[in-house]
């Protein structure tokens, strides 16, 4: 029978309704088992993380305390406690837990579990069937659970790292409550590491080494504990565990997956500079290096979107749209299929004409506004929704550009009265901004002609760029 650990009898007669095993059940003593298994919580209060499910008054805490059993899907990344929660649920309701691995099991194993559950029911025992990686079961295998979940023969618990909306049959999904588990955060990972160190009476670990190990684990408790166990095994006799010991222990794994360290930020810097330098080969190389090293593709997606805006801007506005399309495609397909769209966006942005004109203009505007006073809005630009406001002159003399020749109200100003002349946005002579620059030059000419015709250039203020000391972007 292809069952993972075949059968767990965690809560036979005398089991605890709070989620712990019977009092006479000894704690695991197999020192050869992985550290993650040796430290697996045996009581709900020992669980680190998932406070949104296990905190006071939260769904699973309430179920534990009341001893109520319901079918559920536990959805979350690896190493966050899905199997542990299934075991604790079984202990809380005094049920026998049958564990199936969807990687190894088939329909025959499901039938065997059904036979076992029927025998247990005849003896007055309840059964939970836990399916690890349930998304790997096909439709017919998932359908095999339905009649028995419906009849109440056993309670079904499925664990998955994939979105159950797409990977679990709707019929089975409708009969189960989906609980979303979260990756452990920094504080939770630190607490777990401290528990492991105390349990094993390990030597102290430097803060930099512990933070680097936690970054390597990336919210995965199992990965953290296994790496820590390996570190201890290879650091016998050391009075302190530092980064050098960690690098010797994890080797290339740590150097490649240095999510929070210099290598990670150096790599994203190299990617960004390759794009800025219009080198698609370099950009694709660093993209591949980051993905191969375990960087979160969603982080890279965000950086690529920024590159499209910061480095290309209005020289080719399509770059931003392509970057956003790549982000959407990746969300739909995930890895590895979605990575091709990301590579497509990186290559396009790299070869696109470059302009940081808007980036520079925006930074300059923000700096100007921060140090400048709060200038009032000119009267002709103010909104005038009421008769009183119109009577006060709000909106008076405003010219509606669509009613003007070429939809441009030449000579009309849009900056606060008395503000010094500025030119924040200065298009570069590349790509679409060549045409934008020509357009702005023509509008500036029309403004100058309007001012001359009015015979009062002072009322318009000096035109941007006419004064040697004008604020150029």
From TrEMBL:
It comes from the Bacteria. Residues 68-184 form the AAA+ ATPase domain. InterPro entries: AAA+_ATPase, AAA_assoc_2, AAA_ATPase_RarA/MGS1/WRNIP1, ATPase_AAA_core, DNA_pol3_clamp-load_cplx_C, MgsA_C, P-loop_NTPase. SUPFAM superfamilies: P-loop containing nucleoside triphosphate hydrolases, post-AAA+ oligomerization domain-like. Residues 1-33, 451-473 are annotated as: Disordered. Keywords: ATP-binding, Nucleotide-binding. SMART domains: AAA. Transmembrane segments: none annotated. It holds the Pfam family AAA. Gene3D superfamilies: 1.20.272.10, DNA polymerase III clamp loader subunits, C-terminal domain, P-loop containing nucleotide triphosphate hydrolases. Belongs to the AAA ATPase family. RarA/MGS1/WRNIP1 subfamily. DNA-dependent ATPase that plays important roles in cellular responses to stalled DNA replication processes. This is Replication-associated recombination protein A.
């Amino acid at each position: 029978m292809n069952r993972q650990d075949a059968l767990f009898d965690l809560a036979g007669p005398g089991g605890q309704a709070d989620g712990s095993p019977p009092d006479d059940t000894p704690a695991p003593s197999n020192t050869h088992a992985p550290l993650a298994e040796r430290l697996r919580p045996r009581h709900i209060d020992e669980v680190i993380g998932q406070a949104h499910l296990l905190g006071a008054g939260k769904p699973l805490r309430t179920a534990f305390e009341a001893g109520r059993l319901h079918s559920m899907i536990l959805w979350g990344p690896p190493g966050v406690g899905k199997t542990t929660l299934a075991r604790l649920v079984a202990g809380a309701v005094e049920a026998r837990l049958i564990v199936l691995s969807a990687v190894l099991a088939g329909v025959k194993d499901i039938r065997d579990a059904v036979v076992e559950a029927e025998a247990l029911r005849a003896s007055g025992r309840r059964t939970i069937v836990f399916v690890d990686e349930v998304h790997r079961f096909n439709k017919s295998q998932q359908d095999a659970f339905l009649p028995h979940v419906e009849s109440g023969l056993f309670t079904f618990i499925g664990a998955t790292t994939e979105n159950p909306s797409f990977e679990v049959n709707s019929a089975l999904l409708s009969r189960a409550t989906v609980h979303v588990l979260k990756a452990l955060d920094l504080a939770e990972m630190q607490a777990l590491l401290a528990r492991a160190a105390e349990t094993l009476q390990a030597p102290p670990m430097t803060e930099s080494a512990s933070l680097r190990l936690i970054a390597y684990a990336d919210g995965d408790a199992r990965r953290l504990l296994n790496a820590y166990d390996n570190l201890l095994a290879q650091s016998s006799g050391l009075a302190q565990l530092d980064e050098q010991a960690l690098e010797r222990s994890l080797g290339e794994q740590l150097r490649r997956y240095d999510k929070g360290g210099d290598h990670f930020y150096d790599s994203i810097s190299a990617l960004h500079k390759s794009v800025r330098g219009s080198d698609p080969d370099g950009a694709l190389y660093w993209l591949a290096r980051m993905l191969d090293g375990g960087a979160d593709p969603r982080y890279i997606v965000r950086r690529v979107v920024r590159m499209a805006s910061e480095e290309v801007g209005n020289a080719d506005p399509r770059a931003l749209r392509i970057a956003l399309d790549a982000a959407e495609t990746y969300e739909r397909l995930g890895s590895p299929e979605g990575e091709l769209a990301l590579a497509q966006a990186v290559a396009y942005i790299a070869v696109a004409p470059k302009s940081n004109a808007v980036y520079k203009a925006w930074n300059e505007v923000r700096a100007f506004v921060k140090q400048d006073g709060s200038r009032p809005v000119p009267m002709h630009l103010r909104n005038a929704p009421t008769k009183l406001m119109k009577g006060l002159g709000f909106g008076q003399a405003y010219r509606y550009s669509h009613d003007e020749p070429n939809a441009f109200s030449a000579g009309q100003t849009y900056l606060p009265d008395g503000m010094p002349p500025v030119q924040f946005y200065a298009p570069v002579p590349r790509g679409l901004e060549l045409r934008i620059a020509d357009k702005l030059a023509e509008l500036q000419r029309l403004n100058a002609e309007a001012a001359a015709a009015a015979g009062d250039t002072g009322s318009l203020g000096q035109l941007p760029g006419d004064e040697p000391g004008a604020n150029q972007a």
